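Open question from group meeting: does this chain pack into something compact, or does most of it stay loose? Before anyone orders reagents, we agreed to write out a predicted structure and look at it together. Recording both the input and the output here so the notebook holds the full record.
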Amino acid sequence: MVLWSRATRKWHIQGFRNCRRIGGTKVVLPRTSSHGLKACDSDRPCCPENQNHDDGLRRDGNPAATRQYSDRRSVDPSQHTGDHSWHVRILRPQKGSSYSSVSEFDTDWPQELLFDLARLKGDWFLDSYQRFEHPNYIQKQVDTVLDLYGISLRDTPVLDFGCGFGASTYCMIKRGANQIVAADLDESNTDFASSFLAGMGISQFATVLHDDVVPTLKPGTFGVIWLQAVMEHLLPAERENYLRRFWDALRPQGWLIITETPNRVWPIERHTTGGTWWIPWMKPSRVFRKMRKVAKYSAYDDDDFYRSGIIGSSYGEILNCLGRPDDCRQATVERSGYVKHVYSRAAKRSVGRRVAASMLGAADLAARTCLRRPITAFMPFLQHLAFQKK
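Structure tokens returned:
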């Protein structure tokens, strides 16, 4: 990365001899200075113009190019509470979603967090950053659920189970959550989540735990329990045990949210293999035998495959794991206009998409009326599922 500070109007990049690779991503690490980065005078560039170095980072020392970026204002400086705003240029191809196609962006993140995220995620750096900041990524998931069911997170105890490196927690804080317990089993994830919340000055709104919190859950503790892309990573015994413990831990009128989980009703497995037919319809044992023939998975045991997320879930399995309790209101089944609501937030719209949305809306009505299932129960991913405790 190469950082441009609009506050100092200078490039913050590294000298030749301190370049190194971090987690597979070519990242510029700063020399020691008063703020942890070497500040390069825009009129006296640190590196020769347009020179390429062995770390793959392009040092554009052209003062005119430097001034070009000083006028970018995609981030509102009035909302920035730190000392700097940065313009980040990505010079190495990135993996991940379509949100990783950009090569430059502005950010108010402290530069230490940018480097920490690059160390943690490597070639997935940009995708990981977008999980925090892109309005159509994790934030859209959170906004859709909260607006669809009229849920308020303010002054409500929230368990963000499987919080990862903190993106879902951050998105909930932006929607008013101020009593979050964010838990994950990966210590590198929780370490970054803690650093991120502290670096952004919002650590008072969330407690980050590197622990399996399920055994310690007490009845009636939380108003919302949130599982964002979690179900597919649980072992079979955990799915039943955890969901029942989550249900007991909810307060009356509390919400269990399950979203972004691969659906085993859909015939294509996209989460782990990227698009392999029929895997969701196979028994797990057969899936494991098949995948062990692939070099990448040859050493995986059964638990490794479950943890990878290759065995998704289904709406029926979720109900069975919950024990189909009498005090469970299937809010997603009762909510009319689901497809229309989701389409109203679509990033891309067209006549064809509008027609498809109308057809899905009619199918949703039929599925809810005749099968007591929401339309998402038949889609590639189980999205925006909400179960309310009566």
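Observations to bring back to the group:
The CA atoms of residues 27 and 36 lie 15 Å apart.
The mean pLDDT is 82.
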